[in-house]
Design brief:
Helix content is 34%, strand content 21%. By secondary structure, it is an alpha/beta fold. Bound molecules: adenosine-5'-diphosphate and magnesium ion (MG). Magnesium ion binds next to helix 4.
């Protein structure tokens, strides 16, 4: 005789596709009745018109129908009460009833802010690919696009919808669910612009507004338990760098530069400013290094030595800042970015992808998680 407990167990194991937790853990399964092989299952969604509603309903139906002895299933979809929703968001925030920033010094998540002296050096491209490479190696990865003036992370991760815009995160009250691309949970200012904003979303940002936005990304986005949180910083040493320095003084900083000696000086400055706020410069990545051509010659469009020069300039008597790697110029890296297909996933044999993955591995194995253990990296 099939009873309601079996159906409840089966339905409770269905995953909420956005929250990525089983419905039983989210208190979304209400009454379950079984009458002569006929099951009626009541579920409560977080919000009306929840985008994942159809999928959840389908999965619940399938899960109940798969229980032995059930030949007929009715799914009744309801919505949580405000009180239930508050209880849920508090639970998702880890029982932090009051606002405590989840990435503070107590956190087990390693925070890495990726910065550069100037724009166009490939910082966002490098950040997106490092995030995907770390996720491919089994880490739980979040990515905050803090480059409010030139956000590009949604496009780099293929998170662009049919209307050409990034998706809008689902909200459960004041908790936002980050869209996921290549297993990376990503949040970007581009997801919050008015839908009719001009292309590129030209918005005049003031310092306090920037600070509030970064603060909100850190506090009100449901990333869950992350191993690594990457931040794609705006180039230079402006308001966002200062806000991030204040909000995340224990963050590690990765400096991206080109091999061009002229770019080195501004790159060094961005590292020094980060260090002034207490952040640690963990390394330098050189991008757009020499490309080896089919005939074996090499094309060094941007010269050479910039990465090593920046690393040397940022090193002190107490601390050596390493050059973590050099990523060659790569047509595939560029086109993969344009198409929203990160090359570490789509073309892992490309020399730039190999270099990026090696840097990701170095980051994961040389850094320490806040618990003092190396991060749990598995070979993809
Ligand atoms: N190693 C590389 N080889 C070829 N093109 C690259 C490389 N790195 C970045 N690019 C391209 O350079 C441009 C600027 O990169 P982007 O990541 O947007 O820079 P930033 O974030 O520093 O402004 C993009 O078109 C990107 O595809
Ligand atoms: Mg960028």
């Amino acid at each position: 005789m099939t009873d309601a407990v079996d159906v409840r167990t089966a339905v409770g194991a269905v995953m909420d596709p956005e929250l990525r937790r089983p419905l039983s853990k989210l208190d979304m399964v209400r009454e379950v009745r079984v009458d002569a092989g006929s099951a009626t299952v009541q579920i409560a969604l977080t919000i009306v018109g929840c985008p994942a509603a159809d999928r959840i309903e389908r999965d619940v139906h399938a899960a109940a129908a798969a229980v032995a002895g059930i030949h007929d299933v009715t799914v009744e979809v309801g919505v949580m009460t405000p009180a239930e929703r508050t209880a849920l968001t508090e639970r998702l925030r880890g029982g932090r009833a009051q606002r405590v920033m989840p990435f503070g010094p107590e956190s087990l998540t390693r925070v890495i802010a990726v910065t550069s002296g100037k724009g166009g050096v490939g910082k966002s491209t490098v950040t997106a690919n490092l995030a995907v490479a770390l996720a491919q190696r089994g880490l739980a990865v979040g990515l905050i696009d803090a480059d409010v003036h030139g956000f590009s992370i949604p496009a780099l991760l293929g998170l662009i919808e049919d209307d050409g815009l990034p998706p809008q995160p689902t909200r459960i009250d004041d908790l936002m669910l980050p869209p996921v691309g290549y297993d990376v949970k990503a949040i970007s200012i581009g997801m919050f612009l008015p839908r009719d904003a001009p292309a590129g979303g030209a918005v005049a940002w003031r310092g306090p507004m920037l600070h509030r936005t970064v603060n909100q990304f850190l506090n009100d986005v449901y990333f869950g338990d992350l191993d690594v949180l990457l931040l794609d910083m705006p180039p230079g040493t402006g308001d966002v760098a200062i806000s991030v320095g204040q909000l995340l003084p224990h963050a590690d900083v990765l400096v991206v530069t080109t091999p061009q000696p002229a770019a080195a000086e501004v790159a060094v400055r961005s590292g020094l400013v980060a260090r002034q706020t207490g952040q640690r410069v963990i390394g330098v990545v050189e991008n757009m290094a020499a490309l080896t051509l089919a005939d074996g010659t090499s094309l060094d469009l941007f010269g050479s030595g910039g990465g090593a020069a920046v690393a040397a300039a940022l090193s002190t008597d107490d601390e050596t800042v390493p050059l973590l790697g050099s990523i060659p110029l790569s047509p595939a890296l560029r086109s993969g970015g344009d198409e929203g297909r990160p090359i570490v996933a789509s073309t892992p044999d490309d020399p730039a992808a190999v270099a990026l993955d090696a840097i990701a591995l170095r980051l994961a194995t040389t850094g320490r998680s806040r618990a003092g253990r190396p991060l749990p990296v598995s070979r993809a």
